[in-house]
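Pilot study result, target chain (162 residues):
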Amino acid sequence: MTTDINTIDKHFLRQTIELAIENVKTGKGGPFAAIITKEEKIIAKGTNIVTTSHDPTAHAEISAIRNACRLLNDFQLEGCTIYSSCEPCPMCLGAIYWARFKRLVFAADKCQAEKAGFDDAFIYKEIILPYSQRNLKTEQIVLQEDNTPFDVWMDSNTKIEY
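Predicted structure:
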Protein backbone atom coordinates (compact mmCIF):
# COMPACT_ATOMS: atom_id res chain seq x y z
CA MET A 1 0.00 0.00 0.00
CA THR A 2 1.46 3.36 -1.00
CA THR A 3 0.87 6.59 0.85
CA ASP A 4 -0.26 9.53 -1.27
CA ILE A 5 1.73 12.78 -1.28
CA ASN A 6 -1.06 14.69 0.46
CA THR A 7 -0.92 12.34 3.45
CA ILE A 8 2.87 12.61 3.58
CA ASP A 9 2.71 16.41 3.37
CA LYS A 10 0.18 16.59 6.20
CA HIS A 11 2.36 14.30 8.32
CA PHE A 12 5.43 16.53 7.94
CA LEU A 13 3.42 19.75 8.34
CA ARG A 14 1.98 18.49 11.63
CA GLN A 15 5.51 17.75 12.86
CA THR A 16 6.57 21.23 11.77
CA ILE A 17 3.67 22.83 13.65
CA GLU A 18 4.52 20.79 16.78
CA LEU A 19 8.11 22.01 16.51
CA ALA A 20 6.91 25.64 16.24
CA ILE A 21 4.67 25.23 19.30
CA GLU A 22 7.55 23.72 21.29
CA ASN A 23 9.79 26.62 20.21
CA VAL A 24 7.35 29.11 21.72
CA LYS A 25 6.80 27.09 24.89
CA THR A 26 10.55 26.80 25.54
CA GLY A 27 11.07 30.52 24.94
CA LYS A 28 13.66 29.93 22.21
CA GLY A 29 11.96 32.13 19.65
CA GLY A 30 8.93 32.87 17.52
CA PRO A 31 6.12 30.54 16.44
CA PHE A 32 7.87 29.27 13.33
CA ALA A 33 9.52 25.99 12.36
CA ALA A 34 10.72 24.25 9.21
CA ILE A 35 11.56 20.68 8.29
CA ILE A 36 13.50 19.62 5.21
CA THR A 37 13.01 16.20 3.69
CA LYS A 38 14.75 14.26 0.97
CA GLU A 39 13.15 11.10 -0.37
CA GLU A 40 10.47 11.46 2.32
CA LYS A 41 13.00 11.35 5.18
CA ILE A 42 13.74 14.28 7.48
CA ILE A 43 17.28 15.55 6.95
CA ALA A 44 17.10 18.86 8.83
CA LYS A 45 14.96 20.96 11.13
CA GLY A 46 15.02 24.59 12.11
CA THR A 47 13.13 26.94 14.37
CA ASN A 48 12.96 30.69 14.66
CA ILE A 49 15.68 31.80 17.08
CA VAL A 50 15.84 35.48 16.14
CA THR A 51 15.49 36.86 19.66
CA THR A 52 17.66 34.34 21.50
CA SER A 53 20.47 34.41 18.93
CA HIS A 54 20.27 38.19 18.38
CA ASP A 55 20.22 37.46 14.66
CA PRO A 56 17.45 38.89 12.48
CA THR A 57 18.20 36.27 9.81
CA ALA A 58 17.73 33.30 12.17
CA HIS A 59 14.30 32.43 10.82
CA ALA A 60 13.16 28.80 10.88
CA GLU A 61 13.62 28.24 7.16
CA ILE A 62 17.10 29.79 7.14
CA SER A 63 18.13 27.69 10.15
CA ALA A 64 16.83 24.52 8.50
CA ILE A 65 18.53 25.35 5.19
CA ARG A 66 21.86 25.93 6.95
CA ASN A 67 21.51 22.62 8.80
CA ALA A 68 20.62 20.70 5.63
CA CYS A 69 23.46 22.23 3.61
CA ARG A 70 25.96 21.31 6.32
CA LEU A 71 24.63 17.76 6.45
CA LEU A 72 24.71 17.30 2.67
CA ASN A 73 27.92 19.32 2.27
CA ASP A 74 26.32 21.26 -0.57
CA PHE A 75 24.92 24.74 -1.14
CA GLN A 76 21.96 23.50 -3.13
CA LEU A 77 19.10 21.33 -1.95
CA GLU A 78 17.78 19.98 -5.23
CA GLY A 79 15.37 17.12 -4.75
CA CYS A 80 14.42 18.32 -1.27
CA THR A 81 11.11 19.57 0.08
CA ILE A 82 10.87 22.24 2.76
CA TYR A 83 7.88 22.22 5.08
CA SER A 84 7.18 25.43 6.96
CA SER A 85 4.70 26.09 9.72
CA CYS A 86 3.91 29.39 8.01
CA GLU A 87 4.25 30.95 4.57
CA PRO A 88 7.87 32.10 4.32
CA CYS A 89 8.78 35.77 4.51
CA PRO A 90 10.53 37.41 1.51
CA MET A 91 14.02 36.67 2.91
CA CYS A 92 13.23 33.00 3.48
CA LEU A 93 11.42 32.64 0.17
CA GLY A 94 14.49 34.05 -1.58
CA ALA A 95 16.72 31.55 0.24
CA ILE A 96 14.37 28.71 -0.70
CA TYR A 97 14.63 29.68 -4.36
CA TRP A 98 18.42 30.04 -4.15
CA ALA A 99 18.73 26.60 -2.55
CA ARG A 100 16.85 25.08 -5.51
CA PHE A 101 14.26 23.12 -3.55
CA LYS A 102 11.95 20.80 -5.44
CA ARG A 103 8.96 21.89 -3.35
CA LEU A 104 7.76 24.27 -0.66
CA VAL A 105 4.78 23.26 1.49
CA PHE A 106 3.44 25.50 4.25
CA ALA A 107 0.56 25.55 6.73
CA ALA A 108 -0.51 29.02 7.94
CA ASP A 109 -0.40 31.88 5.45
CA LYS A 110 1.00 35.41 5.72
CA CYS A 111 -2.45 36.80 6.63
CA GLN A 112 -2.61 34.54 9.69
CA ALA A 113 0.92 35.62 10.62
CA GLU A 114 -0.06 39.28 10.26
CA LYS A 115 -2.97 38.80 12.68
CA ALA A 116 -0.46 37.47 15.23
CA GLY A 117 1.73 40.56 14.80
CA PHE A 118 4.13 39.34 12.09
CA ASP A 119 3.64 41.62 9.11
CA ASP A 120 5.95 41.04 6.17
CA ALA A 121 3.62 42.75 3.70
CA PHE A 122 5.53 46.02 3.99
CA ILE A 123 8.67 44.33 2.61
CA TYR A 124 6.80 43.04 -0.44
CA LYS A 125 5.53 46.60 -1.01
CA GLU A 126 8.95 48.19 -0.53
CA ILE A 127 10.79 45.90 -2.96
CA ILE A 128 8.82 47.08 -5.97
CA LEU A 129 9.16 50.80 -5.18
CA PRO A 130 11.73 53.00 -6.88
CA TYR A 131 14.74 53.55 -4.59
CA SER A 132 13.74 57.15 -3.91
CA GLN A 133 10.32 56.12 -2.55
CA ARG A 134 11.45 53.43 -0.10
CA ASN A 135 11.23 53.93 3.66
CA LEU A 136 14.84 52.73 3.89
CA LYS A 137 16.99 55.42 2.34
CA THR A 138 18.41 53.59 -0.67
CA GLU A 139 20.94 55.06 -3.07
CA GLN A 140 22.87 53.74 -6.01
CA ILE A 141 26.17 55.41 -6.76
CA VAL A 142 27.48 54.48 -10.18
CA LEU A 143 31.24 54.03 -10.32
CA GLN A 144 33.41 53.33 -13.34
CA GLU A 145 34.59 50.06 -11.76
CA ASP A 146 31.19 48.88 -10.46
CA ASN A 147 30.96 46.03 -12.98
CA THR A 148 34.53 44.79 -12.42
CA PRO A 149 33.62 42.06 -9.90
CA PHE A 150 31.21 40.61 -12.48
CA ASP A 151 33.82 40.83 -15.25
CA VAL A 152 36.35 38.98 -13.08
CA TRP A 153 33.68 36.37 -12.25
CA MET A 154 32.78 35.80 -15.91
CA ASP A 155 36.47 35.42 -16.85
CA SER A 156 37.25 33.08 -13.94
CA ASN A 157 38.19 29.49 -14.72
CA THR A 158 37.70 28.42 -11.11
CA LYS A 159 34.17 29.70 -10.46
CA ILE A 160 31.48 27.37 -9.23
CA GLU A 161 28.24 28.53 -10.75
CA TYR A 162 25.09 28.58 -8.66
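One observation from the pilot: The two ends are 39 Å apart (CA to CA). A full batch analysis is planned for the follow-on phase.
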